Amino acid sequence: MSILSLTSLAWMAGSWEMARGGACIEERWTAPAGGTLIGMSRTVADGRTRSFEFMRIESRSDGVFFVAQPGGRPPVDFRMASTSGSEIVFLNPGHADT
Prior knowledge:
There is one protein chain. The protein is mostly beta strands. The protein has a single domain (4-91), classed as Lipocalin (Beta Barrel), CATH 2.40.128. 0% of the residues lie in helices and 60% in strands. Strands 1-2-3-4-5-6-7 form a seven-stranded antiparallel β-sheet, with no helix packed on it. The protein is globular and about 45 Å long. The N and C termini lie far apart (29 Å).
């Protein structure tokens, strides 16, 4: 997938919301432009922000990457492993979700 083909991810642009276990998880994504999509999320529970994350999907010469910065921490890269329709899989074998 090249910079130009990030347009195939345009379906991600906009606002997404999910309720789970008394928490509301919101995500907002920009439309693809300039080789990136930019996103942010937050989780609100009991009237308080419990977590937030800055995110981006970017096209590089060596692939397409999801870059996560939970809580504003340093970025962690996840390389795109596959995409089909409305599903994208990003992997980072050296990073375990804790």
